[in-house]
TrEMBL record:
Residues 8-235 form the ABC transporter domain. Keywords: ATP-binding, Glycosyltransferase, Nucleotide-binding, Transferase, Transport. The keyword Nucleotide-binding applies. This is Mannosyltransferase. InterPro entries: AAA+_ATPase, ABC_transporter-like_ATP-bd, ABC_transporter-like_CS, ABC_transporter_ATP-bind, P-loop_NTPase. Pfam families: ABC_tran. It comes from Streptomyces shenzhenensis. It comes from the Bacteria. The keyword Glycosyltransferase applies. One of its GO terms (molecular function) is ATP hydrolysis activity.
């Protein structure tokens, strides 16, 4: 028997911006698969098309050529978490977390219960009626994560969600996300600049080239699941981080 059909498959994917003669080749050609329940991290130099890839997966951009297919059974299969939180300042924390459920017309009682569950899981229960302006950056990102997971997506897309946070908060949220996604087996495509983040979270780490971005390497962190943030102190962690950095450094140096 062959391998199960992947949750996400990109084939010869490209994206070009602008019009001739001022076009910019931003992405590809790129091929990628993500299996059901897999956590795939993508790293690459700035401007290589990582976020473009994620926006195509989310349906926010169309590819110029090639295809990106998502195999799901849900009418609302994908949730996305942005670097800038993407939550609504005029809505309470509870209303923000419930937002996707409201869009899906989930009955209010059920939506409130699911929102309350995720608020509790992410340590936000005491802030249900607060507004985002009163929250720290880390708490706002927890709200964004709770909102995305409350809709029970088949595919979670994350675009550098912790990049704006300080190092301590970033580590805490990495470990929280690791625990949640391991428990739920959430299929995740995660864009990051942080090699440490990619190794801690990922089943696979994909390295992209400089623009136009292509996948030039794949590494599997040698840490079985369930894993914890304690792997950061392992010699194999340091060795893999160095190997990935060597790959990235070659791509980041101007030709």
């Amino acid at each position: 028997m062959g391998e199960p059909y992947p949750k996400l498959r990109a084939t010869d994917l490209t994206r070009t911006f602008g019009r001739t003669p001022h076009t910019v080749d931003a992405l590809g050609p790129l091929g990628l698969t993500v299996a059901a329940g897999e956590f795939v991290c993508v790293v690459g130099p700035s401007g290589c098309g990582k976020s473009t890839l994620l926006r195509i997966a989310a349906g926010l951009l169309r590819p110029s050529t090639g295809t990106l297919e998502i195999r799901t059974t849900s009418p609302h299969p994908v949730a996305m978490i942005f670097q800038d939180y993407g939550i609504y300042d005029w809505k309470t924390v509870q209303a923000n977390v419930r937002f996707g459920l409201d869009v899906q017309r989930v009955p209010r009682r059920e939506a409130n219960a699911r929102a309350a569950d995720w608020l509790a899981r992410l340590g936000l229960a005491d802030f249900a009626h607060a507004y985002p302006a009163t929250l720290s950056g880390g708490m706002r990102q927890r709200v964004a994560i709770a909102r995305a997971l409350a809709v029970e997506p088949e595919l979670l897309l994350m675009d550098e969600p912790f990049a704006a946070l300080d190092a301590q908060l970033r580590t805490i949220l990495q470990d929280e996300l690791l625990e949640i996604t391991q428990a739920l087996h959430t299929t995740t495509l995660f864009i990051t600049h942080s090699l440490e983040e990619a190794i801690v979270l990922g089943d696979r780490v994909l390295v992209m080239s400089a623009r136009p971005g292509r996948i030039i390497a794949e590494r599997r962190p040698p840490f079985p699941r369930p894993r914890t943030g304690g792997i950061r102190s392992a010699p194999a962690f340091t060795a893999l981080k160095g190997e990935l950095w060597d790959l990235l450094r070659k791509e980041a140096v101007p030709a």
